[in-house]
Amino acid sequence: MTTELWLDQLQENGYRLTAARRTVVNLVAGASRALTPLEVFEKARKKNPALGLVSVYRTLEKLEELNLIQRVHQPGGCQAFIAASRGHEHLLLCKNCGEVAFFEGDDLDGLIQSISKKTGYKVSEHWLQLFGLCANCQ
Amino acid sequence: MTTELWLDQLQENGYRLTAARRTVVNLVAGASRALTPLEVFEKARKKNPALGLVSVYRTLEKLEELNLIQRVHQPGGCQAFIAASRGHEHLLLCKNCGEVAFFEGDDLDGLIQSISKKTGYKVSEHWLQLFGLCANCQ
DNA sequence: TACTTATTGAAAATGATTTTCAATTTCAAA
DNA sequence: TTTGAAATTGAAAATCATTTTCAATAAGTA
């Protein structure tokens, strides 16, 4: 279970396990679309009404630092987070419902080499994201 | 000259040509790296000390609306703007100095088809961005 | 040149995020 | 267990970027 893994990770890195962290981790680990801090707060508060927005920010910060979640960039904003991809994976986002799928297997080596030659840049990273409609929203 | 083109575009779309707009357009049209509103403000103010930050925001808003500039997403933030690419081009950013190069010629059709089949998504857009070091910064 | 209206910069308002702080909770050590 | 130091909490205040408001000014048409 992702939730347990994340909690273990937090603990192994010297962070204490608290009710606030459990609530946030539980919610974000199970989400299939990217959530903003405020969305996490509002949803998590239903399970744990004492939860404060500040703790949501602080927990997300730690999860990001441990590479357990990643920020999702979208035309409408870049504050939302989703479980991080394992290894070299990219995101595919549904423009309607926000559902996120991961994919791998992009082979951009040829492209990157030709760009490097043309521009003189030494390329070290690439960032690829696809947008579309998920099976449900078509 | 890009500056003249942008000013023409503003005028053709019913916007007046003012000192504030000329200053901002002149600066952004000539920039080789993405600039935040505050950076534009600070640089432009040297040429036009009367310029207000609000006018920078408003001018950038109009330039974006006319597709003359585009927002650049980076790990450090997504508020910076650069001249928009013509046609289907992507960005290559220097991680050291921020210098931006455009490139085209990505052929992701094969990849996108196989992803579509695997995930059931109907893919309609893609974002590709490369990061590295420009010739000067290597 | 006159005049309507868009545009301006400054100040106030907003909204998201961060910091501060006293009270509480965690967890390791006794 | 119990204890106690240190981390964590939520609320309130502070901060920072962006947007709105507004009276004064400037653009461009008549």
The unreliable regions of chain A are none
Give the helix level of chain A as a range of percent.
40-55%
CA radius of gyration of chain A: 17 Å
Structure annotation, total helices of chain A? 5
How would the global form of chain A be characterised?
A: globular
Question: Termini of chain A, distance in Å?
Answer: 30 Å
Secondary-structure-based class of chain A equals alpha+beta
Q: Biggest interface, which chains?
A: A-B, 35 and 35 residues
Mean of all residue-level pLDDT scores of chain A: 96
Query: Taking strands numbered 1, 2, ... along the chain, how are they ordered across the largest sheet of chain A?
Result: 4-3-5
- Measured by DSSP, the beta-strand proportion of chain A falls in 15-25%
Largest sheet of chain A: 3 strands, mixed
Taken in chain order, the helices and strands of chain A follow as: HHHHEEEEHE
How many beta-strand elements of chain A? Answer: 5
Assembly state of the chains shown:
homodimer
